[in-house]
Amino acid sequence: MKILTISGSTRSDSANIKLLESLPFLFSTYTFERYALLSDLPIFTAESDQHPWHSTVIDWRKAVKNADALIISIPEYIYNMPALIKNALEWVTSSGELVQKRVLAMTFTPNEPRGEKAMQSLIWSLQALDANVIVQLPVYQNEVEFDQNGQLIENEASEMLKAAIDLLTT
Q1: Which of 157, 167, 95, 88 is nearest to 134 (CA)?
Q2: Domain containing 81 — which CATH number?
Q3: Going by fewer Cβ within 10 Å, which terminus of the chain is more open, N or C?
């Protein structure tokens, strides 16, 4: 199974990216591909959503279409999902790549209750795109630990993440 992972963070050293990059260590039976070019997408406008599309829009749409499932992990910015992920989702509105696509929606924030409003915003957008949101998972940085190789250290949070991915892939 090919799983496309997407970080909604704009920071190159983001905790969301670190979390997504640790997933292959948990599940060697799946192919994880992290889409790292969201910041290259042009700002969406209805007028620009027509042929000829920008090459990054074509690449983004193809990556989503070719994935069996998606894991979207976002921080919370001013009680909302980051503009970066909102822009990316707008680029698949008219083309339909997310229709019935299996999605694990995650927030990865410093501590509880941060992320609740961002998750709601993400879910509303995914529902509007007819995505098949299998699992919603808030993950908190104060509950997750990584070793020196970037692998998740086994604990309750990593077990919940494993369970969520199991649900996504079955």
Answers
A1: 167
A2: 3.40.50.360
A3: C
For residues 93 and 128, what is the distance between their CA atoms, to the nearest angstrom? 9
Task: List, for residues 133-166, the tens digit of each pLDDT value.
Answer: 999 999 999 999 999 988 999 999 999 999 999 9
Q: Give me the residues paired with residue 137 across strands.
A: 106
Tokens of 142: 């104060």
CA angle centred on 65, ends 168 and 167, rounded to 5° = 0
Map tokens 């020196």 to a residue.
148
Mean pLDDT of the residues in the chain: 95
Cβ-contact 108, 141 below 8 angstroms: yes
- Name residue 164's amino acid: A
- State the residue range of the domain holding 157: 2-46+53-169
Per the rule left: phi > 0, alpha: psi between -120 and 50, beta: everything else, 113 is alpha
SS3 category, 36? coil
**Contact by Cβ (8 Å): 162, 63:** no
Q: What is the pTM of this model?
A: 0.95
- Compare 10 and 36 and report the one with higher pLDDT: 36
